[in-house]
Specification:
- This protein has helices at residues 14-29, 31-34, 36-66, 68-76, 86-100, 106-132, 144-147, 158-171, 177-205, 221-232, 237-255, 258-262, 274-288, 294-321, 332-335.
- The protein is an all-alpha fold and 336 residues long.
- α3 (36-66) packs antiparallel against α5 (86-100).
- The longest helix has 31 residues, at 36-66.
- It is globular and about 50 Å long.
Length: 336
Amino acid sequence: MKPDPLKHLHAGWYAAVMGLTGLSLAWHRAVPALGDGAANAALALGVLAAAAFTALGLAGIWRAWQHPEAWAEDLRHPVRHPFVAALPISVVLLATVAVACGMTGPVVLALWWAGALTQLAVTTWVLARWWRAVPGVAGAPGTPGALGIWAGVTPALFIPVVGNVLVPLAGVPLGQVEWAAAQFGVGLLFWPLITALLLVRIALHGLWPARLLPASFILVAPPSVVGLSALQFGAPPLVGWALWGMALFSLLWVLALLRRIADQPFGLAHWGMSFPMAAFTALTLRLAATGGFAMLGLALLAATTLLVAALALATLRGLRDGTLLAPETVPIAAAA
């Protein structure tokens, strides 16, 4: 029987929507410096992101109908299950782009609520798995048999957390300040905890599999988005700068892996670089109004735009060549 590529269209593909919406919001932050051209670019990227989301949603519904076992496997997978959160995050980000473009009607509000509540449910589900986890006891530290639950401790765990700290970006302008603050608090609670878990995993068992190394950029996302949301709540600029410093250090830290990342064949994990870079760019441009960092922000915007364009071209090439939407030659969990 001929293999069906649709079977391998898991929720991690929504990382592309996150990258496009994040870049749209970064271009929106560049409007004070670049004018209407930046606004038009932000709108075009938002429309492209909405089209990608729609295509993935329709394909995902068909996949669930044709391959329900594949969806069930995604939910059980020790490494891949947090990527389910990329779907509601995409909804929240699409609502945020709509608000940035001046749309604040009931449809956008309903979209935001749907994304926010689903995101909270997914976060609860991901973290509830910890209560059922059984630590591995076989093997010595650094060997696959010793990993146990540590196989699932990868930067992907940040995805459910980031979704909650994103909620205020559209929630505050839509008048849902109290709920936005409450869900923001969920992200603040678990961001440092997951960071600590990642450091413990590195100390005990080393880094996550090489194919997941591009996803290490996700470490840049939490401080970047927390900074943007804190400023949305009216926090003093110095709070934003403190979080910008955390994001900058996270980026410099992850850049030490860049050579090893470049040695990896292109895969979906590379899209994990896009949203964190876009979020850091947006925070830099947001703070540029209170400091002399405008040129740095514009340079980051150019670099992030080129990155997303390169990822999009590599994705189209991978789909054409059949290297994407294909079975894993070595399961990530086994390689961990």
